[in-house]
Write a structure and sequence with these properties.
Mean pLDDT: 84
Shape: elongated
Number of strands: 0
CATH superfamily of the largest domain: Tetratricopeptide repeat domain
Helix content: 55-70%
CATH architecture of the largest domain: Alpha Horseshoe
């Protein structure tokens, strides 16, 4: 027989164990639900709190969450709210980190268009140029995005001449000009080697040496110009290309191979710039009418 009170004690103990297990499972479920919800912009009571939380998500490289937070801020804040400009800036950076370059450029531009006097405006303009530059992936592709990038970066230099971002803007413009020159040079090669069309090739080579005289492609364009002038027996023009190359590329083996050694009277100005720089000489060369592309 069961002792009096035993059944009650056993029932109480079993109930306690069940209650403890239930509480543990309930806590685990609540934790899982919280984890499943993740970062929710609507959970933050103030824009300041959401901004700080979104920055933290950005620092953790949680780009999607950071983007959601900054997007909500840009949609909800009034035009006069001091958080709006930085929200656009960080939203643009999250798009950039996700390789969404067009969206990044658009967000940067909303900052520079709406807040040109803001301290973030030069950095945003640099970001716009950087984003458009990233959209032009190879010189052989359509250069429209690269041209946009160069235009914006030059505008940065003129609009904010004292901004620290100017140095990077200059480097990026130089990189873009190398690609522009390479693209035009390759088009010239196509006309010369593939289509056997001299006049358009000369035009493209001249554009390279006139517009981008300090690029790597300029030297190659000069050599191809000399080659074509000799081929079509434009002796005087061939000689002028040699004069330009001797002064621009002294001691260059390919120039020496094409033109021979530079004469003794080929001088260089004290500033280091060649007398009769290639671009200046190119401007004096005759520009033939193209025969068609």
């Amino acid at each position: 027989m069961t002792e009096p009170g035993t059944s009650g004690r056993m029932g109480t103990s079993r109930t306690a164990r069940l209650d403890w297990r239930f509480l543990v499972l309930l806590g685990f479920a609540a934790t899982m639900v919280g984890c499943g919800r993740g970062f929710q912009p609507r959970d933050f009571a103030t824009p300041e709190a959401l901004f700080r939380a979104s920055l933290l998500e950005f620092e953790r490289k949680h780009w999607e969450d950071a983007q959601a937070g900054f997007e909500k801020l840009t949609n909800d804040l009034s035009a006069r709210d001091p958080l709006l400009a930085p929200a656009f800036y960080w939203l643009a950076l999250t798009h950039e980190r996700r390789h969404e370059y067009l969206l990044a450029a658009q967000a940067f531009e909303r900052l520079t268009d709406g807040f040109p006097e803001d301290t973030l405006a030069p950095a945003a303009m640099l970001g716009t140029g950087r984003a458009y530059q990233s959209l032009w992936r190879r010189p052989v592709l359509d250069p429209e995005q690269g041209q946009k990038a160069a235009s914006i970066l030059r505008a940065l230099l003129s609009s904010y001449p004292d901004a620290k971002e100017g140095e990077e803007a200059k480097r990026r413009i130089a990189q873009l000009e190398e690609w522009f020159a390479e693209k035009d040079y390759l088009i010239g090669v196509h006309y010369q080697k593939v289509r056997r069309s001299v006049d358009p090739a000369i035009i493209y080579y001249k554009d390279v040496v006139q517009t981008y005289p300090s690029t790597k492609a300029a030297r190659l364009a000069w050599l191809r110009l000399h080659e074509l002038y000799k081929k079509i027996r434009w002796t005087e023009d061939a000689a002028e290309t040699c004069t330009a190359m001797w002064k621009a590329y002294p001691g260059d083996a390919e120039v020496t191979g094409a033109c021979g050694k530079a004469p003794a009277d080929t001088t260089v100005r004290a500033t280091g710039s060649p007398q009769g720089a290639p671009g200046a000489v190119a401007a004096t060369l005759p520009r033939p009418a193209p025969r068609g592309r």
